[in-house]
Structures are given as structure tokens and as C-alpha cells.
Amino acid sequence: MSSESTPTAALAVTVFGAAERQPLLLLHGFTGSAVAMSDVATALGACHEVVVPDLVGHGSSPVPSDVGAYSADAQVRYLQDVVGQYQTPLPVVGYSMGARLALTFAVAAPELVSSLVLIGGTAGIAEESAREARRRSDEMLADMIEREGVAAFVDYWESLPLFASQRGLGADRRHAIRAGRLNNTATGLANSLRGFGAGEMPSVWHCLGDVAVPTLVIAGSLDTKYVGLSGQLVERLPNAKALVVDGVGHAVHTEAQSAVVEAILAHLGSGKAEAP
């Protein structure tokens, strides 16, 4: 499946699939990029034009020194510029940080979102003391990234229990994921945490009743925290269903790509993907 990279508004954007197919917006997680999503984007590209921006501070997108450029409001504006080019609301698929942004975008610009798929997602942290604790934790992590550099941070990040199940991936796939993480800057990652970390982003739990678009919430069975969060999301979203994929962790789309792609295409009524 061919792809091309083009600058769109403030973000670098990679497009997978053919332009005559229905466009779909795909949002990566923290430390990711369009490159990190390329396998799943290529599979989805059998049925869609898959639009994958490098979110601000990641990949080939700008790395502003102003933390305000990473805020929820700023990131919504970036996505409005991307989606606005298509003159139609798009399905939005987001993973982890990208899922948080997808929900934030659906709340802020509902006229631009036709459906949602949230992979390892949450609507933020509602309780203020917990948010403040997470802000402090993210600030310490941002300081570490700036002090010790991206490589040392990636070593730490990959050692987290959240990603333990990725050790079952093949060596080539693990190497590609690591290379993508290393292709970021200390400023971009640190400011992403400061501007749009889970503690800093505004909670949208109280807005979920207004998000009426069809929504699929996906979690891996080994990722117990997000299995619980997926249940809470489905309870509050008016038109949502959950899918728990057995035997995988947080990055479900990486560890069980075929199952996730099939579920997304079924959710969107798009048919089956081409065999890899």
C-alpha cells in the first residue's frame, strides 16, 4: 500500500490508501507517529483513505517551545485544520493519548466526527487531587526526558508494566517500535506531557452524554486498568460498545492487529481488509 507525506496546517500528515475511499483519521499514542501506526494504517487503507498526522511534538511535526501549543485547545485546532480539508465529518480512531485526543475532539467539534474507535483510551482524570498528582508525576517525567535524553527515557518507557506484553512481539517489530520512539525530541516529548498529559488535559467525562456518534472502545485483556476504563466509557457514552481482545496488553492494535482492523472495519461497515 503506497503512502505519501505532506505538511497539513501545523502538522505533518501521512496518507495511506487510495484517495477515492472514505477518509478516516488515525491518531497515534505518546512517543508515536504515523510511522508507528503504518502497519495498521496500511491494513485499514484497503478500505479507507487513512489520514495519520504526527501529533504536535512528535515525528516530523513541529516541536514548539511554547507548552501552550500542546494544549487540548491547540490540538483540537490542529485537527480541525486537517479534517476541514475533507469537507465532511470523519471517523476518528485513536490509540492511548490519541484516544484521549479523539474524545476531546469529538466533544469540541462534534460536527467533524462521524464515529469513534478508542483503543486503550480514557476521558481524562475527573478528580482534581488525582489530576494534580498526575501533573506532578508528568512534570517529573518531563524533567527526566530533558535531563537524561530521549534514549534513556525510551529505556525507562519500554520497561513499564503497561508495555510488558510487547516483549512477545518479534524482534524486528520491537526494533521498529523502538526506532520510532527514538525519532522524537526531548523538547517535544517533555512539552507533550506538560501540555496534554493525562493530568493536564481537561477531563471530558462529564461531556460523554453528548457524544452520540457510534463508538467502539477496545482494550486488551491484560491491560486491566483500561479494561475497567472501557467499561466506564461504554456506560456513559450513549451509542458505544466495548471489545476486549484476549491475551494482549495496552497496544492492542500492535499485538492483535488483524482482530483490531477487522473490528474497526465492521464498526464502520467497511468490509474486510486485504490480507497482509
Q: What do you see in this structure?
A:
The protein has a single domain, classed as Alpha/Beta hydrolase fold, catalytic domain (Rossmann fold), CATH 3.40.50.1820. Helix 1 crosses helix 10 (257-268) and helix 4 (128-148) runs antiparallel to helix 7. The protein is 41% helix and 18% strand. It has helices at residues 38-44, 72-84, 97-108, 128-148, 150-158, 171-182, 186-196, 224-236, 252-255, 257-268; strands at 3-8, 11-16, 22-27, 48-53, 90-95, 113-119, 215-220, 240-245. Mean pLDDT is 93; it is low at 4-9. The protein has 276 residues and is α/β, with parallel strands linked by helices. It is built from ten helices and eight strands. It has an eight-stranded mixed β-sheet, sandwiched between helices.
Which helices and strands, and how do they pair?
Blueprint: E1 3-8, E2 11-16, E3 22-27, H1 38-44, E4 48-53, H2 72-84, E5 90-95, H3 97-108, E6 113-119, H4 128-148, H5 150-158, H6 171-182, H7 186-196, E7 215-220, H8 224-236, E8 240-245, H9 252-255, H10 257-268
Parallel strand pairs: 3-4, 3-5, 5-6, 6-7, 7-8
Antiparallel strand pairs: 1-2, 2-4
Helix pairs in contact: 1-10, 2-3, 4-5, 4-7
How would you summarize what this structure contains?
This protein is of the alpha/beta class and 276 residues long. It has helices at 38-44, 72-84, 97-108, 128-148, 150-158, 171-182, 186-196, 224-236, 252-255, 257-268; strands at residues 3-8, 11-16, 22-27, 48-53, 90-95, 113-119, 215-220, 240-245.
